[in-house]
Amino acid sequence: MKTPKDKLIKLLQDAHAGEKAAAYAYNGHARSLTDAVEINDLKKIEDEEWDHRKRLAIMLTELGSGPRASREFFMTLVGHTISSLCRLGGYLNGFNFGWFMSMYGAGKLERGNIVEYEVAAQYAFEAGYPHFVPSLLDMSEIEWDHELYFRQKSFSSKWARWIPIWSEPPARELIQKNFLKFSGRDRLDESSFA
Ligand SMILES: [Fe+2]
Ligand SMILES: [Fe+2]
Questions:
Q1: 110 Cα: distance to centroid of ligand 2 (angstroms)
Q2: What is the reported pTM?
Q3: pLDDT at residue 194 above 60?
Q4: With respect to CATH, is domain 4-193 assigned 1.20.120?
Q5: Is the Cβ–Cβ distance between 140 and 121 less than 8 Å?
Q6: Domain spans of the chain?
Q7: Distance 14 CA to ligand 1 centre (A)
Q8: SS3 63
């Protein structure tokens, strides 16, 4: 049977590979855009995904593990594929559909990332690595911000009248509140988890 630590390692490995795919995808997404503000927004989001990957690598080392090669390979392909599709969408942007689909696809993926880090924080707590929790919840909140950005962009398009937007996540403050309820702690600062 899998221990909480096994489950944590597997999830962090998946997230570590997923962050690379996301960073590659956003790199292509930024190149598909023409608006300078949006290009900067996407570059900032890409940087945040690389930062998440670094944090996860440090956690995996502390767990006596590291990235899972097969997953890294697969997600590298996924990242390059999405990147190419975004760039293609930038060239074939009739009626702004390429722009919309890149924003839409990104938002849907980010919706899943919020939950992934909430679950990782619970696994870390159960596995005896509670000092990972503040960083994992912080990453969940940053993914929440990414999801909001892409949802707002998607809603700003006329295509949103025809293509339903995914369901909105629960409020941002619930990420920490729900974890505190789960863990029975009353504070989230590093010292309370040391
Ligand atoms: Fe991320
Ligand atoms: Fe993200």
A1: 5
A2: 0.93
A3: no
A4: no
A5: yes
A6: 4-193
A7: 12
A8: coil
Q: What is the pLDDT of residues 54-69, one digit of tens each?
A: 999 999 999 999 999 9
Task: Report which bound ligand comes closest to the CA of 56.
Answer: 1
Whether 193 has a pLDDT exceeding 80, the answer reads no
CA of 23 to the centre of ligand 2 (A): 8
DSSP letter at 68?
-
Residue 1 Cα to ligand 2 midpoint, Å, equals 31
The pLDDT of residue 1 is 81
CA of 52 to the centre of ligand 2 (A): 9
Q: Decide: residue 13, CB within 10 A, 0-12 exposed, 13-18 middle, 19+ buried.
A: buried
Q: Ligand 1 center to residue 95 CA distance, Å?
A: 30
- Label each residue of the chain as H, E or C: CCCHHHHHHHHHHHHHHHHHHHHHHHHHHHHHCCCHHHHHHHHHHHHHHHHHHHHHHHHHHHCCCCCCHHHHHHHHHHHHHHHHHHHHHHHCCHHHHHHHHHHHHHHHHHHHHHHHHHHHHHHHHHCCCHHHHHHHHHHHHHHHHHHHHHHHHHHCCHHHHCCCCCCCCCCCHHHHHHHHHHHCCCCCCHHHHC
Distance CA(103)–CA(107), nearest Å, equals 6
